[in-house]
Amino acid sequence: MILLTGANGHLGANLARRLLKDGATMRVLLRRASDNSTVEGLAVERAYGDLRDPASLLAACRGCDAIYHCAAQLSTVAGGEQQLFANNVLGTRNLLDAAAKNGVRRVVVSGSLSATGHRWEGPTDETEPFDPFEEHLPYARTKAAVEHECLKAVAGGLDVVIAVSCAILGPNDFKPSRMGQLLLNYAHGRLRAYVPGGFEFVAAADIVEGHLLAMTHGRSGEKYIFSTQFMTVSDLLALYGEVTGRPNHALCVPAALLEPVARIGEFAHRHLKIGGRQLLTPAAIRLLRLERRADCSKARSELGYHSGSIADAVRDAYDGFVSRGLIERRQSFAVRSLESERTKA
Ligand SMILES: NC(=O)c1ccc[n+]([C@@H]2O[C@H](COP(=O)([O-])OP(=O)(O)OC[C@H]3O[C@@H](n4cnc5c(N)ncnc54)[C@H](OP(=O)(O)O)[C@@H]3O)[C@@H](O)[C@H]2O)c1
Fold first, then answer.
1. For residue range 30-71, what is the model confidence (pLDDT) as tens digits?
2. Residue 94 and residue 87: Cα distance in Å, rounded?
3. Distance (Å, rounded) from C-alpha 17 to C-alpha 45?
4. Rounded mean pLDDT of 16-22?
5. 170-213 pLDDT per residue, tens
6. Residue 169: is it exposed, middle or buried by C-beta count within 10 angstroms (0-12/13-18/19+)?
7. CA of 252 to the centre of ligand 1 (A)
8. I need a labelling partner for 59 at 20 to 30 A (CA). Which of 110, 188, 284, 344 fits?
9. Fold (CATH) for 2-170+199-230+292-308
10. Ligand 1, from 3, 4, 5, 10: best to mutate by most atoms within 8 Å of Cβ?
11. What pLDDT is stored for residue 336 in this prediction?
């Protein structure tokens, strides 16, 4: 029996479907008060609990051989430190403790590239330490502390491997994720401006594969970075244009101009509780400007990891949104220009 935490989330939803396709018997940890429709129709056993409730985790781990721990509180804004600490750091500690008490063979914990140090002169690999004196979001600090919890558990005799994710793009995005929301905004013509820069992205199918490889071939106490490719924001928007059939009309605005706007937005959101979901946070702008690149050589050489395609991941995400009625399908941009050329001829 496999226990999966975070099955409602973007990564967990993809991992659950892949595990079921591979014939796994699975239990998922769900919170009673959450919208759990994501797992409806899936042949999984449900365990209700919370990462902050150790007793519920003891029960959820009972009889399990392996655990995929994908649950976490994600955040790209300042503030909320106590809640992030409780969900991510103490939650992981509670789960690893329950796993050890239940004799679980191996736990794969989802990590974040934000918990690995930034290398200015080239791609970051697993050896680059997280620098606590740099400017970090509370979320990144908790993900670094999660890695400490994993190493403490390994020192205590538990087998734990960390599968590090970059920004995920792909289908089964039910909440939707920040990247999914960006695609929705783009498809509805609501993306007015963006900042130059770029980031390392991972296709949902690739990070799922990474988790499976970490479970089967990873070395205990090690972390492995999984990425598909680095992309600039303009490349990503060009891809969104191709997939949605809507050319990119968003303005590329220098970060120095958009940052004050993002700071005001964050202040209004955090202290005055106004404004919707903020995608362009000051931290997101800072991250894009860093143009972080990831080196997956360790995953390739030790685990036999091969990355797939971001274009496919975006297409699958788009198809998922179309099938759920969140986007109305348009004729592809490329097809339309071909057809207009044919008409002219
Ligand atoms: N998405 C990315 O781009 C990205 C990038 C780097 C790393 N990661 C890492 O990948 C993992 C999965 O991320 P994701 O994108 O799938 O996140 P997500 O879509 O926000 O899903 C998070 C999941 O965690 C669950 N959860 C949160 N707090 C919980 C608690 N106290 N008890 C039980 N369940 C709890 C949520 O359950 P509810 O439905 O009940 O809220 C949800 O199922 C995380 O470890 C994250 O740090 C993600």
1. 999 999 999 999 999 999 999 999 999 999 999 999 999 999
2. 10
3. 14
4. 98
5. 999 999 999 999 999 999 999 988 888 999 999 999 999 999 99
6. buried
7. 30
8. 110
9. Rossmann fold (3.40.50)
10. 10
11. 53
For residue 71 and ligand 1, the question of a CB distance below 6 A is answered with yes
Rounded-to-integer distance, Cα 269 and Cα 279, Å: 12
For the stretch 239-249, pLDDT in tens is: 999 999 999 88
Domain ranges of the chain: 2-170+199-230+292-308
Tell me the two tokens of residue 302. Answer: 């030790």
Task: Please give the distance, rounded to the nearest whole angstrom, from the Cα atom of residue 337 to the centre of ligand 1.
Answer: 40
Q: 289, 232 in Cβ contact below 8 A?
A: no
Question: Which residue minimizes the CA distance to atom 15 of ligand 1?
Answer: 10
Say how far apart CA 260 and CA 75 lie, in whole Å: 20
CB 266 within 8 Å of CB 282: yes
Residue 34 beta carbon below 6 angstroms from any ligand 1 atom: yes
Q: Cα torsion for 277, 73, 115, 132, to the nearest 10°?
A: 90
State in Å: Cα 342 to ligand 1 middle. 47
Instruction: Select the more confidently predicted residue: 221 or 338.
Output: 221
